[in-house]
Design a protein that fits this description.
This protein has 649 residues and is α+β, with helices and mostly antiparallel strands. Helices cover 37% and strands 23% of the residues.
C-alpha cells in the first residue's frame, strides 16, 4: 500500500508546467502577457532554434522590486489579484501566478529587473533541488529581461513531442501576432536566429493601425474589410470584418479579443458564423479582427489553464449583440460602396480571374469604405476612413481614371438621347482621331428616361451578352461584368426566402408522428426551447421522461431526415444555447431550388431582360457574391481595360 507524500516544489511546478507550458510559444505567451500587464510600451523578443534553445524577452515596464524577486519564481505568487473581488473582475492578462514557476522548472531561466524609481537592478534564478532563488546585483535599465534557455532540458519526454524548428517558430510567431493585434499602443520587435522578423512601432491613429494589420495579416485583408464600431447595452464591438467575397478555406484569419484578451469561444464563433451564413458558400470561413469590450465583472476568464476561453454572465445577450451588429454591417454593403476586389482570399481555381484584374485598381488603405470611426480617429481628427467618390477623388491616377469613366458615360448618354452610334476612326492621311456619328435603329437604352442618366444605377445599363453567360454593363465608373446565372440565382433565392418566412411557414401534420428517444437533459431542453422549433414550423412535444415526439414539420423539409435534424438542433442548443440549424437547412434547400430555377447558360437575353436582371440584382445585392460562393459581378476600371488592351497587343 502506497503512502501519501507531499510533492517536492520542483515536481509540483513541472506538473503545473504540463498545463501551462506546451511548447516555446506557450512560454512567449505567458512572458509577454506579464510584460504587458507591467505597462510596457516596447517589447523585444529574441529567439533561437524556434525558441527551444533560447527565448529572451525585454520590456520597459515598471519592473520588480528586490524584495519581491524571491517570490517571482514561486507558485501562486502574483501582484495582480489579492481578494476574491479582484478575481471576479480581472482586468489583466495574467492572474494565476504559475507561469514563472512552471517555466523555471523546465528550463534554465534568469530574470533581471530594475523597478521604477530604483537605482539598482537585480538578477534572480532558481537553483538546486528545492529551486531556491539566488539573487545577485546586475546592470539593467528600468524594466525586466527574462532569459529562458534549453527548454525541457530536464524533461526529455516532453522535448520529444516538440516539432521542427520551423513549426515551433510558426506557433511562436502566431502568439506574437495575436498580442500585437491586442495592444496597438505597444511596440513589438521579434528576431529569430539573429534575423529580424517584425519591427512594429506603437500605433496612435487609424492609418498606422491598418498598416500594422497589413503587416501582420496581409494587405488584401485591409483592402477587403470594413471597420466596425458599435455600442449597445453596455457592450462595445469594434474592429475589422472581412467582406463575404474575401473568404478562406480555413478559419485561420479570425481574431477575437475580449477586453484585450484573445479568446477562442464557441459562443462567439457561432454568432459570427450565423451572421455570415447567408452570404458564404458551405465550407468557407469569414475573416475578422474584432474587439469586444464589456464590464470585467460580467465575464469569467478563470475557466481554462491557458486562459484561451471565457464565460459570459449573459451569453445570449452577447451572442445576439454580435450577430445583429455584424449581420447589419454585412447587409449594408452595396455595389456602389464595395470597391474591394471580388475574389476569394485563397482561391485555387479560375473563378477569381476577373478579381485578379480588379485587385490592381483597389483603393489605397486610407480610402476604403468604413462603417464608423475608431476612438483614435475621433481623438486625432483622422478622416482617412471616408469613402472616395467621383466628386472628390484622391490622387492623380484615380482622378485620371474617373475622367475617363465620365467620358465613356458621356458617350453613352449622347447615344441614348440621339439614337445615333458614336464611333472614333483614324484619318488615314493625317493619323488624327475623328468622331463619326451614324444614325441607327432605336438604342438599346430606349426604355430609360433621359433624367435617369443624371444618376446611373450602381450596376449600370446592359450593353451586351458575352459567351452566353456574362452581361456586360456600363456604369458611371466603367464597365461591369455580371454572371447572369449567379445573379438570377441570388434573386430567386431571396424571393423564395421572403415568401417562405412571410407566409409564416406552411406546415404538414405527420400521419405517423416520429418518436425520438433522448436523455432527460435533452428532453428538458426541448421543453424549454419549444419556440425554437415552432418558429420554423416544427411541433415537437415531450412525451416522457426521456422521449420527445415530432407531430408537424414544415412542408419544405418534409422529405428530409427529420429525426437527425431534431437531434442536431438539440445538440446545438446544449452546446451554444441557441441553434440556427433549422433555418440553415431550409436555406440550403431553397438555395438548391434557386440554382435549378435560375436562368441557364447560353440563353439569349434581350437588352430589356438584361437591364431587368440588373435592377433586380441591385435590390437583392448585399455583398456582390452569390449564395453558393461564386462572384456575381466584377468591376473593370479604365486602367484595367488599358492593361487588357496592352496585353492583347
Amino acid at each position: 500500500m502506497k503512502r501519501i507524500n507531499l510533492l517536492s516544489p520542483r515536481l509540483a511546478n513541472q506538473i503545473a508546467a504540463g498545463e501551462v507550458v506546451e511548447r516555446p510559444a506557450s512560454v512567449v505567451k505567458e512572458l509577454l502577457e506579464n510584460s504587458l500587464d507591467a505597462g510596457a510600451s516596447q517589447l523585444d523578443i529574441d529567439v533561437e532554434q524556434g525558441g527551444v534553445r533560447r527565448i529572451k524577452i525585454r520590456d520597459n515596464g515598471v519592473g520588480i522590486v528586490k524584495d519581491d524577486l524571491s517570490l517571482a519564481l514561486s507558485r501562486h505568487a502574483t501582484s495582480k489579484i489579492v481578494t476574491l473581488d479582484d478575481l471576479e473582475a480581472v482586468n489583466t492578462l495574467g492572474f494565476r501566478g504559475e507561469a514563472l514557476a512552471s517555466i523555471s522548472s523546465v528550463s534554465r531561466m534568469h530574470l533581471t529587473s530594475q523597478a521604477e524609481n530604483e537605482s539598482e537592478a537585480w538578477r534572480v534564478e532558481a537553483e538546486g533541488k528545492d529551486m531556491a532563488a539566488a539573487i545577485r546585483p546586475a546592470s539593467h535599465p528600468q524594466g525586466t529581461t527574462i532569459d529562458v534557455r534549453d527548454l525541457f532540458f530536464n524533461t526529455p519526454a516532453r522535448r520529444k513531442f516538440l516539432r521542427t524548428e520551423k513549426t515551433e517558430f510558426s506557433h511562436l510567431e502566431e502568439v506574437v501576432k495575436r498580442l500585437a493585434l491586442s495592444r496597438y499602443e505597444t511596440g513589438f520587435r521579434l528576431s529569430h536566429n539573429g534575423k529580424q522578423v517584425y519591427d512594429l512601432r506603437p500605433v496612435t491613429d487609424q492609418l498606422h493601425a491598418e498598416h500594422r494589420l497589413a503587416t501582420l495579416l496581409g494587405k488584401k485583408f485591409i483592402e477587403n474589410s470594413l471597420t466596425l464600431d458599435v455600442e449597445a447595452a453596455g457592450l462595445r464591438l469594434w474592429g475589422w470584418i472581412g467582406l463575404p467575397t474575401f473568404s478562406r478555406s480555413q478559419a485561420d484569419l479570425q481574431y477575437f479579443f475580449v477586453n484585450g484578451r484573445v479568446v477562442k469561444d464557441k459562443l462567439v464563433a457561432h454568432a459570427v458564423r450565423q451572421a455570415y451564413r447567408d452570404v458564404l458558400y458551405n465550407g468557407r470561413h469569414p475573416t475578422f479582427v474584432l474587439y469586444l469590450e464589456l464590464d470585467p465583472s460580467t465575464v469569467d476568464v478563470n475557466v481554462h489553464p491557458t486562459k484561451h476561453e471565457v464565460r459570459f454572465r449573459d451569453g445570449r445577450l452577447v451572442h445576439d449583440f454580435l450577430f445583429s451588429r455584424i449581420h447589419k454591417a454585412i447587409a449594408d454593403v452595396r455595389p456602389e460602396s464595395n470597391s474591394a476586389p471580388t475574389g476569394v482570399a485563397d482561391s485555387q481555381d479560375g473563378s477569381a480571374s476577373i478579381a485578379a484584374i480588379s485587385e490592381q485598381s483597389a483603393l489605397p488603405l486610407a480610402n476604403r469604405p468604413t462603417a464608423s470611426s475608431m476612438d483614435w480617429m475621433r481623438q486625432t481628427g483622422y478622416q482617412g476612413g471616408s469613402q472616395v467618390n467621383s466628386q472628390n477623388p484622391s490622387g492623380d491616377s484615380i482622378r485620371s481614371q474617373l475622367e475617363g469613366m465620365q467620358r465613356l458615360s458621356g458617350y453613352a448618354g449622347e447615344l441614348a438621347q440621339s439614337g445615333a452610334q458614336i464611333t472614333e476612326e483614324i484619318d488615314p492621311d493625317t493619323g488624327e482621331i475623328k468622331t463619326v456619328t451614324m444614325a441607327q435603329s432605336p438604342s438599346p437604352f430606349h426604355h430609360v428616361a433621359e433624367n435617369d442618366y443624371q444618376k446611373v444605377p450602381p450596376l449600370g445599363y446592359a450593353v451586351a451578352q458575352i459567351h452566353g453567360v456574362y452581361i456586360l454593363s456600363e456604369s458611371e465608373q466603367g464597365l461591369i461584368v455580371v454572371d447572369m446565372h449567379a445573379a438570377h440565382e441570388r434573386i430567386v433565392y431571396e424571393r423564395m426566402k421572403n415568401a417562405f418566412y412571410e407566409k409564416n411557414i406552411s406546415t404538414q401534420p405527420l400521419l405517423v408522428p416520429i418518436n425520438i428517444s433522448v436523455s432527460q437533459s435533452e428532453a428538458d431542453l426541448v421543453e424549454e426551447n419549444g419556440q425554437v422549433f415552432e418558429a420554423f414550423g416544427f411541433k415537437v412535444e415531450r412525451t416522457g421522461l426521456e422521449s420527445v415526439m415530432v407531430r408537424e414539420v414544415p412542408i419544405i423539409l418534409i422529405r428530409g431526415d427529420v429525426e437527425n435534424l431534431v437531434r442536431d438542433v438539440i445538440s446545438d442548443l446544449s452546446t451554444n444555447g441557441v441553434s440556427d440549424l433549422l433555418e440553415s437547412r431550409a436555406n440550403e434547400l431553397m438555395a438548391s431550388m434557386a440554382c435549378h430555377g435560375a436562368v441557364r447558360a447560353n440563353r439569349k437575353l434581350t437588352i430589356e431582360e438584361m437591364n431587368s436582371l440588373l435592377r433586380d440584382m441591385e435590390v437583392t445585392e448585399r455583398s456582390g457574391q452569390c449564395n453558393h460562393g461564386r462572384p456575381t459581378w466584377a468591376y473593370l476600371s479604365m486602367s484595367d481595360l488599358d492593361k487588357l488592351f496592352l496585353r492583347g497587343r
